[in-house]
Design brief:
By secondary structure, the chain is mainly β. It contains one helix and six strands, in the order E-E-E-E-H-E-E.
Length: 124
């Protein structure tokens, strides 16, 4: 598997709503998208504290071509989140692939992951 981040362009900058952060400073986002002509369009959807997922993306990217390679698409999502967090009080804690949830007919064309972003608390 190629772990080199797939190139991407930002269609809508990542803007995680403050309401998504728990009282411990953790936000969970669903990254979901599909392949169009070999490129992937991925949206970040905020998860609310009650477990529901917003239908309004808080950011969108379009990747370079990686036909039928949803795991590679998630490398772009990881790079996007890491770049967003750089120089901010946020840190990407994890981006877990959910691609195994798709059936064989959908799997080559759909990508999903769960991103966990936190405001790290220092031990002073």
């Amino acid at each position: 598997m190629n772990n080199t981040p797939l190139g991407y362009g930002i269609d809508a900058p990542l803007a995680i709503p403050a309401s998504c952060f728990s009282d411990k400073g953790i936000a969970v986002l669903l990254v979901t998208g599909g392949s169009y002509g070999g490129q992937w369009v991925l949206n970040a959807l905020p998860m609310n504290m009650d477990g529901t997922v917003s239908d309004q993306p808080c950011g969108t990217i379009t990747t370079a071509e990686a036909p039928r390679d949803p795991e590679r698409a998630l490398t772009a999502a990881r790079a996007w989140f890491e770049a967003h967090c750089e120089g901010t009080p946020f840190a990407l804690i994890d981006l877990k692939s959910l691609n195994h949830m798709y059936g064989p007919n959908e799997a080559p064309f759909m990508a999903s992951g769960q991103a966990i972003v936190a405001i790290p608390v220092g031990n002073e």
